[in-house]
Specification:
GNAT family N-acetyltransferase, 200 residues, alpha+beta, Aminopeptidase
């Protein structure tokens, strides 16, 4: 039996763990990264710190088994991270080699710390919000992913934003089907990733 609730600071370690254990296109990425916190620094931690009203978790007797994290104004969120989140991490992690082909998996992530991706303005015009959702295997099925998504989408909707987008690994076909089932449409593809959006 899972309970859905708003995420709390005490959940940070669990969010980082789930981010790692789903970080290989939905599969466990523990064996890929030497530093188990790197994925969480990029894709989980910032939301708990700077968008806590849009962070929700599923919890059972074994602990937190899934989350959905979002931000209603992506550009504002990116600007906030540039000022308050990335600088301490840049001091902690060295600049990776300039040649992307020479980088280790960890260095590919630290490159995102030193040069975070900026969402194209053309995407933000209609889909200014964004989200991430990850569930461990024990939390998958039974409509729990949809319950998480519905909760976040309603929280975003009441802020008045017109739409939300997300990115998913190109190999994660199961997740792509899930998003389509929830009314998301494919907006574009880049190497290794697919972008989806939905009007609110």
């Amino acid at each position: 039996m899972f309970t859905l609730r708003r995420a709390q600071e005490a959940d940070r370690a669990a969010l980082y763990r789930i981010c790692l254990e789903t970080g290989d296109s939905g599969q466990d990425a523990t064996a890929i990264y030497a530093d188990p916190l790197l994925l969480g620094h990029i894709y989980a931690g910032p939301y708990l710190s700077f968008a806590p009203d849009f962070a929700f978790v599923l919890e059972d007797e074994a602990g937190v088994g899934g989350y959905v994290l979002g931000a209603p104004e992506t550009r504002t969120f990116e600007d906030t991270l540039e000022q308050a989140w990335w600088p301490p991490l840049r001091a902690q992690f060295p600049v990776p080699p300039a040649d992307p082909a020479a980088r280790t998996p960890d260095e590919r992530l630290t490159a995102l710390i030193h040069q975070p991706r900026r969402t194209p303005g053309t995407l933000l015009a209609n889909f200014p919000a964004h989200l991430h959702i990850d569930l461990l295997p024990r939390a998958q099925g039974g409509g729990r992913g949809r319950q998480l998504m519905d909760t976040l989408l309603e929280a975003l909707r009441v802020t008045g934003v017109p739409g939300v987008h997300l990115g998913v690994g190109e190999r994660n076909v199961r997740a792509q089907g899930f998003y389509r089932h929830l009314g998301f449409e494919e907006l574009g593809r880049t190497p290794g990733a697919v972008t989806f959006g939905r009007r609110l």
